[in-house]
Design brief:
The longest helix is centred in the C-terminal third of the chain and has 19 residues. Helices cover about 35% and strands about 20% of the residues. The strands form 9 sheets. It has a 7-stranded parallel beta sheet with strand order 14-15-13-16-17-12-18, with helices on both faces. Strands 19-31-30-22-29-28 form a 6-stranded parallel beta sheet, with helices on both faces. Strands 2-1-4-3-5 form a 5-stranded antiparallel beta sheet. It has 25 helices and 36 strands.
Amino acid sequence: MNGFADVILPLALGGSYTYAIPQELQGSIGVGSRVIVPFGQKRIYTAIVLRLHDIEPEGYEVKSVIEVLDPHPIILSHQLELWKWIADYYLCHLGDVYRAALPTGLKLESETKVVLNPDFEADAPFSPREQRIWDILTSKQEQSVQDLQKALGVKNVLPAVHELLKKGALMLKEEIKRTFKPRLEVRVRLKDEAQFLEKDDGERRLGLLLDQLGRAKKQQEVVMKYLELSGLELYKEAQEVRPVSKKELQEASGVSAAVLKGLETKQVLEFYAYEIGRLKSKTDNEIHLKELSLSQQNALNSILHVFLKKDICLLHGVTSSGKTEVYTHLIQKAIMAGKQVLYLLPEIALTTQLTERLRKIFGDRVGIYHSKYPDSTRVEIWQKQLSESPYEIILGVRSSIFLPFQHLGLVIVDEEHETSYKQQDPAPRYHARNAALMLASKYGAKTLLGTATPSIESYYNALNGRYGLVQLTQRYQGLELPEIKVVDIRDQRKKKYMNGPFSAILLGHIREALEKGEQVILFQNRRGFSPMVECKVCGWVPRCQHCDVSLNYHKGLRLLTCHYCGYTYQIPQQCPACESTELQHRGYGTERIEDIIQLIFPEARVARMDQDTTRSRTAYERIITDFQKGDTDILIGTQMVTKGLDFENVSVVGILDADQMTNIPDFRAFERAYQMMAQVAGRAGRHGHRGLVVLQTRNVQLPVIQQVVANDFLGMYDQQVEERELFRYPPFYRMINVYLKHRDEEELSKVAGHAADLLRAAFGKQRILGPDKPVVPRVQNLYIRKLIIKLEQTAPLAQVRNSLRVLIAKISEQNHGLTIYCDVDPQ
């Protein structure tokens, strides 16, 4: 028997921790199971078993596992392998991956509870409040601090609890609190129902029951309605009685809750709680797959041919070419072969539209997984994936890669170029596309990367033979790509043809589309009302107290907001520098665009889609459904509207300010700008007619603008790879950003300089850039410095990672108050 377990704790700590397995628990613990373990003086955590062995650690007293939570592992072996790879490659801890991977309901929280000290002897009287706490605990034995506050009716009970702890009257008890509660339904049945099924006695018992109810006609009707709903047949012993919920019986009978309560009091009916799932039950509305066009069929055949030789294929298909139809045929082939499919999307909004399409084809074989679903629903999906009847298809965003799969055969990464696949904060700072490739390799599954605008790295890998490459160059049903009109807003402003952020040309096309009953999408990649408020007299601009950025004005909130730390400020009535009351809004956010459009087109139905309006899953669904049904005429949005949404009646797309994207100080700026503009342009004219895109810019001759107009992806790609090879950027070099944060700017500058010296000594001067201030050099009162490591593709990565871990640990140990971390393959 294995006497020890190495476990992963949900903490940012290096390595695993070893615990002894008590005799009574030996044989009941498996790798991948959850166990309860003590850590530190009083804390208790849920840990994941990483390894079982008989090697007793030396040099310290080994603590014991308290409890086993799972009879079977909830983390499968391939998942643990993926966790280890993410922790190793992205230079983070296994505990970081654990925290990101599991739904909260599967991680138990430690909650402090207060208990009486049985050995306490008072030598002085308690205060009135202390006495009340003592009395409560005498009757209830233990209470959480929160429960004590409720019982006492006070806001803060901690001082009194603290005094009792100092006196030794109370002790703190750590108790595990289970956060996942199964969903229950109150059901109803006849008291002693089995007796009503007896062959010779059922009718007699029913007669006696109705006589017992006497003149209570409503109660008699409820009993008869129950018999009808349940399908219970008298005299028939072997039968399935349909479950009836209390709510269903009450609604069908048209009676009050008091009538049902009366039947319970008379012991005619009894109520019982029954656990029901949050997941949708079986549907029978599956339809046949659409027949593919000739170009789609050729693409499908090419992908299948690539999969005979390679595990990864890039599908480069123009917008509206019908890539989703190709995906569905691949999914059908995978599930017919007994395999599961993971279908990744970059944005929750896309799952809303795609869910309906997939469920029409595959019914209840599709499971949806993302953060907008309640945690309890995600727990049930996790548990279903471990059951004997898991979902065959999982549709979700980046967190879906952590789900357990038993027979994964195909991974589809749609819109593979999207930066949303990269996790930024907190750790693990993984890229879901790359993690999905690794996940598929663990299962021996195939991976399809699909997009109209491939990332430079993926296209480079495809051209160099690492991935297969399949092109889908025709729009579905032969539709033309949209016409793109470039408008020089600098020239338009000189001629006074601009109305706020709108050129006369764009407004004319919007008006024409509305008159025809067609829809419009307006793209502005900046939320809020205005990105800046400025004093007209002296130029003063309100800035965040905690971050080095100007504040955004949100009209709906009537507040100035920092988009980095979330702190809000009241709008000043006058300038604090010169006391002028002339404060003006500078720039345009989606909120301000919405206001202006409503003034210009008061009859139009306008909706806005950005982070502020889509904070819940239902908000996403409502905005998309309304636009899809034609209940909205103009949709204004940030980059959310660029990501693969399909609306058949959109004829005009307006890109209000292309320069916002091209002026970002980042080596990927032109690539991102091309992708965003090409993607949002692709929302126009998708069904039956050619669309129009009005692209407003101050730099008409900029190469990326001309490449978007000509749909010249290869031109953009060639130009970018030439520059990146020259300046040593991906895909020719690997990048790792090292961030250092500290509250003292002077101290941070010294530490950053020392860190740069250590890195240059370890990796060579040519490979290290910095330290430099990032674009926003202070966030949440922490000053920031950044170092960039550039490594040749041939550099020994494992050795580099090990050296980096050692150096980071050394720098961190020597500098109290310093935060230091790595961002591998930054986006």
